[in-house]
Design goal:
Blueprint lengths: L11 H11 L3 H8 L8 H4 L9 H12 L2 H13 L23 E5 L2 E5 L4 H16 L6 E7 L4 E6 L7 H14 L2 E4 L2 E4 L9
Parallel strand pairs: 2-3
Antiparallel strand pairs: 1-2, 3-4, 5-6
Helix pairs in contact: 6-7
């Protein structure tokens, strides 16, 4: 039987891009990965020494995203037949509202991944404007991704691990955000900037 060999785990940036693409909160990512309170999801995508995602856990995550509920239940049944005992109450898909949900939209500008959770036009426009100002200020290389959480009307930045990110560079990033983003989080505080959003309706 063939096995996965020479496994190299996804890096922090790849995991953050996955989370941004899915539009999942940290709690939902923890659920997807089968984590408990002792190993919260943020430990895999941040901090001075982020945890690595083992191949079994990554396989589990991708299986949950790839298999439909009937197929997933067959896997769980096989686990029970093998002698395992466990509770399985609410499938991941059931936590999503049954009504159609807006789809996330993403773009890449100057090396930055720009994501709007619900694909709102005005949010993507603000993100693109931010990207241009950040590029003109020569700070785009310090930003991995910018995620606009449509559900709470808040934009967050994921910075690159770069020793060149000085206080002056952070000030230029903040200035670009303040000129373009209606509501954003920076250094743990929420700020208002940009221009009022227009309705998509």
């Amino acid at each position: 039987m063939k096995t996965i060999q020479n496994y190299a785990p996804p890096d922090v940036q790849s995991l953050q891009r996955l989370q941004d693409r899915l539009g999942f909160s940290d709690a939902r990512m923890a659920e997807l990965a089968g984590l408990d309170a002792a190993t919260p999801w943020p430990g895999f995508v941040g901090g001075p020494e982020p945890r690595t995602l083992g191949r079994q856990r990554l396989f589990y995550m991708m299986a949950r995203l790839t298999l439909d509920e009937r197929q997933w239940q067959r896997v769980l049944d096989a686990m029970r037949e093998a002698g395992a005992h466990f509770d399985y109450e609410v499938p991941l898909a059931a936590s999503v509202e049954p009504t159609p949900q807006p789809e996330a939209d993403e773009d890449r500008k100057f090396g930055m991944l720009l994501v709007s959770r619900n694909g709102a036009f005005h949010e993507m426009e603000q993100l693109r404007e931010f990207a241009h100002f950040a590029h003109e200020a020569d700070v785009s290389r310090f930003i991995n991704s910018v995620f606009y959480d449509s559900d709470i009307d808040l934009c967050r930045f994921r910075f690159a691990d770069d020793e060149g990110l000085t206080d002056a560079s952070r000030d230029r990033i903040f200035d670009a955000a303040h000129r373009t983003i209606t509501r954003f989080e920076f250094d743990g505080r929420i700020y208002h900037g940009g221009i009022p959003p227009e309705s998509d309706g």
